[in-house]
Amino acid sequence: MRDKDYFNPYMSDARWQIYENAWLPDLQGVRESQFALGNGYIGSRGVLEEIPRKASPGTFFAGVFDRLGSQVPEIVNAPNPIDLRISAEGEKLDVSAMDSLDHRRVLDMRRSMLARRTIYANAGKQRFSYQSLRFVSLPNKHLAIMRVYLTALDAPATFTVISDVDTSIVNQGIVTEGEKKHVNIQEVVKVGDVNYLCVKTFEKATLIAYATLLEVGYRNRSYYEPRRTFELQVKRGETICLTKYISMHTSRHLPPSRIKRINVEHVQRAARKGFEALIREQSKAWAIRWKQADIGIAGDPDTERALRFNLYHLMIMAHEGDDDVGLGAKGLTGEGYRGHSFWDTEIFLLPYYIFNFPRVARNLLLYRFHRLPQSREIAISRGYEGAMFAWESADTGEEVTPEWHKDLDGTIKKISTGQIEHHITADIAFAVFQYFTVTGDEDFMLRYGLEMLIETARFWTSRMIFNQRRGYYEIKGVTGPDEFHENINNNAYTNSMAQWNLAMAARFFRVLRSREPLAVKKLSERIRLRTGEPKEWRRIAGQVHIPRKLGLIEEFDGYFKRRHLPLPEVDDYFIPVMPDMPAKELERTQYVKQADVAMLLYLRPDEFTALEIERNYRYYESRTLHKSSLSPAIYAALGARVNDMIKARRYLMASLMIDLKNVYGNTPIGIHAASLGGTWQAVVMGFGGVQISKGLLDFEPHLPAGWKTLSFCLLWQQAPVWVAIDQKQIKLRWETKKKGGSLAIVVNGSHRRLSPNRAISFSYAQTKRRKKL
Q: Which residue in 483, 555, 614, 700 is the catalytic one?
């Protein structure tokens, strides 16, 4: 007999789906990352519920770290509540143990739901239908729901069900470490029909609590089943429905004395509301998010769908309700990079949140602000002033870069980035400025942002050395974004960003002091700002050395003297393969790991002429190996800006597919968060041509052939600006409650104005290029 498809009515159409059509064991880890669910508070990997062999379950709570058994603190892989093990006639329904005649899973990105349909056949050729749908609630951050339908297709059967929270989960070993268990069990108890589990992390004693309630639908009745293991007999063609409600809280925001009662009551309320109501709430909440965040690409549905995958993962990794957690390099989808925050957040991810979800962006900057005391301590420990932000940050803001890692060629290498990759301090200051410019959040700038700009400027003042002979300030002994070349002098990216940091801190101090003299005076007194410091920042900024020769920016002193080699052959995504040489030999060449000078050109285009940008882009593009997932998106954006459209499109496809096609081979340890944000920037700020120029929204589109229309929405000064670009014109609509007035913008170098709530179209020429981008 054929079985009914129970979950198809809930699903969006194919434009919103990522799916697998067969069980392929070698892709299990990739699918677990791709199919992850989350809401920014909880992240849940897309494991199969039966936990097949070599599965890597992952349940991550934002901000929960532990160090026991590890070189440095790492995000805790908590007990797995997506644990439903079912046997039919004594054989486990498991794709790695039983024949699967048909298997399909679908991630519905529009509603953030994961659906599955598997037909099993046991040793006696009896078939069983297993269908599941689960989601992590967006409107209720502490809730997850899973529903399963079981059908005996050929004969009567006995199903044995084990519904539990798996406490055997460990964090994987890295380099010199073995597997690590970061929690121990505190309490396991039944409260009525609810099963309650509480565990505690070893180092910080953070409680993680689960309350689960299993509802059984069987023979026209439903009831709650408190037993963790039970049996059900079914007739041929008969179906059982299991609905598991899961409530999860930590003691980061709840006192230990209340966590049990709140968790139990929470799951009981969810069960009373019921599956149908909860799924309606989920769909409504996600519809609101997608209204703001969706990007349409008419004429290229495959690119549009791949882009939605990137946008989906950006939305499940952060939420608006916590200003004390950062974003890990893998979001909440895996253990990669131990959940640590890097410069990825401010340079690659924050622009997306600033323009789409500014409250999330504000909280991410407040995460950095709250760690100013630790950043000051780091600076003092290194002999500097001000605040020096950690290269890798976990929960406390202390430097947590591990000492060892596996290099690109598999050798074990000592890590120096935590000691000398200092540009992150300027990157954070840059994000503060960008947030304020786009949102106009003066309260943030006055209460938090100005202090961050001041303390980072103080750091750079103490970090720079004046070269008496040459008459300029320089920064020695650093590593820039190109980590093939370590401990070099005057990295152009680092020097230029530090220069910007100094100048911008002086400017904002002057402006805010004139607007809010009393508040700035109190801040100056509290942080003991000396009278002449802002003038000193401005003076130093005017004398910072940026290496240049014959119209080219030299990545660092002596770079041009390194050995120039042609790029190796490229892979299917036009990413050069690794050269046939030891990793340590790369530093003697001009090979570049990732966008470095290109990153500078992209972030600070007003500092260079169009000719300088194009010349440097082409020079470094021919030397960059893109051995970081951060790189292709930046070259896509920059390539679009200089009208190198063929390569720009290739780099965009590489960035889009990094996790969809496991381009770098490490998607199983988590989604590449920075690449997600970089991809958004490539589309919006590269092909869409959006920039911030002298405080104004600036548009200079560069649409690829085949894209009929590119449409998106940006929040500017808290009001939506709707954008639709085709091959001949750009249509803009400023949606505001203001009566009268206009919004000043720039379109292809010409100053324009938008009237409130009125769509206005502007013609543009794809080939036109300004003297300054």
A: 483
